[in-house]
């Protein structure tokens, strides 16, 4: 049987190795860039970006970091381009609605979970690794601040590997919205839904799987049934790297209070909170963040390989 692969959307610029891997039906893992430009300080951000690509390669898959450079949607970046995203002072945070504007004005943009998912899907990539998902913000019952990551998960056929939802967000309401949107939330290897920095959240995960092959089967079955949208694969931070809720929760409360006092709203909230938590924890939260992204890259590469083995031949 010969495999023909869907042609990537013509507006995208694929790195040659990514194009070759996709054409051959080999596993590819998408990676986001907001985490580089707006999620971590330099130089740890670019070190993390390079290391995650190496982990994906060591796991037998091709990494494809996604960003907008000079208005072009790029799938797979060079080392110099990762450095640019980590250092350039004018890289916009680009979620779904920002894509047309950044592309029309030919600027640089770092893509969030939502926009990375969409561009990955347009390229034909089915597995995407990140750190944390956006979600329902605390106080969203008044502010209506709900990340477009959630609506994107309801429509775009990509499995997103994350370490859960940070408690800078309202985890319970985020899980409720994901249920309403028909998004499977499946946690790998444990019953409790993790909260990014911690393996605990106080919420039981809606689903659990102990096998990567089973996760790949969920992807195949969901899309074969015509159930549009993604799957949130949740991978708890390794125990040796976690910060307990007792360690982190006061720092988060303080950062959230400061954001409120300073009137920070909208897309600036998440980068502000992440930066403040790194400062307030003397860098410990950054170590945890990097450790959980590494861990997700290992699972994502294995999942991309397992899915390539069961994916339908087009
Ligand atoms: N959580 C992190 N690091 C990040 C983000 C979330 O630990 O960098 C980024 C992701 O790109 C995510 C985005 O998609 O923040 C969500 O932002 P918003 O709430 O504005 O949609
Ligand atoms: Mn928001």
UniProtKB/TrEMBL annotation:
It catalyses: D-ribose 5-phosphate + uracil = psi-UMP + H2O. Its EC number is 4.2.1.70. Binds 1 Mn(2+) ion per subunit. The active site is at residues 32, 166. GO terms for biological process: nucleobase catabolic process. Mn(2+) binds at residue 145. One of its GO terms (cellular component) is cytoplasm. One of its GO terms (molecular function) is metal ion binding. It holds the Pfam family Indigoidine_A. Its cofactor is Mn(2+). Homotrimer. HAMAP family: PsiMP_glycosidase. This is Pseudouridine-5'-phosphate glycosidase. It comes from Knoellia subterranea KCTC 19937.
């Amino acid at each position: 049987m010969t495999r023909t692969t869907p042609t990537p959307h013509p507006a995208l610029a694929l790195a040659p190795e990514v194009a070759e891997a996709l054409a051959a039906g080999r596993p590819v893992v998408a990676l986001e860039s907001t985490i580089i430009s707006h999620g971590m300080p330099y130089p740890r951000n670019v070190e993390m970006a390079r290391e995650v690509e190496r982990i994906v390669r060591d796991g037998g898959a091709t990494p494809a970091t996604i960003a907008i450079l000079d208005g072009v949607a790029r799938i797979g970046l060079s080392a110099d381009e990762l450095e640019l995203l980590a250092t350039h002072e004018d890289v916009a945070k680009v979620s779904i609605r920002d894509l047309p504007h950044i592309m029309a004005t030919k600027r640089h943009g770092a893509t969030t979970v939502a926009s990375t998912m969409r561009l990955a899907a347009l390229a034909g990539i089915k597995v995407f690794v990140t750190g944390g998902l956006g979600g329902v913000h605390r106080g969203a019952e008044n502010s209506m601040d709900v990340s477009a990551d959630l609506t994107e998960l309801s429509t775009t056929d990509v499995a997103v590997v994350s370490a859960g939802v940070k408690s800078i967000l309202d985890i319970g309401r985020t899980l409720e919205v994901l249920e309403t949107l028909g998004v499977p939330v499946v946690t790998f290897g444990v019953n409790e839904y993790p909260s990014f920095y911690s393996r605990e959240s106080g919420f039981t995960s809606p689903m659990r799987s102990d096998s990567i092959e089973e996760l790949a089967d969920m992807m195949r079955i969901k899309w074969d049934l015509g159930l549009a949208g993604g799957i949130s694969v949740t991978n708890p931070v390794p125990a040796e790297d976690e910060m307990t809720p007792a360690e982190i929760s006061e720092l988060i409360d303080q950062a959230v209070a400061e954001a409120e006092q300073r009137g920070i709203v909208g897309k600036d909230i998440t980068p502000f909170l992440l930066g403040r938590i790194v400062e307030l924890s003397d860098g410990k939260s950054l170590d945890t963040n990097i450790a959980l992204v590494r861990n997700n890259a290992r699972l994502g590469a294995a999942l991309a390989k397992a899915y390539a083995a069961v994916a339908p031949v087009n």
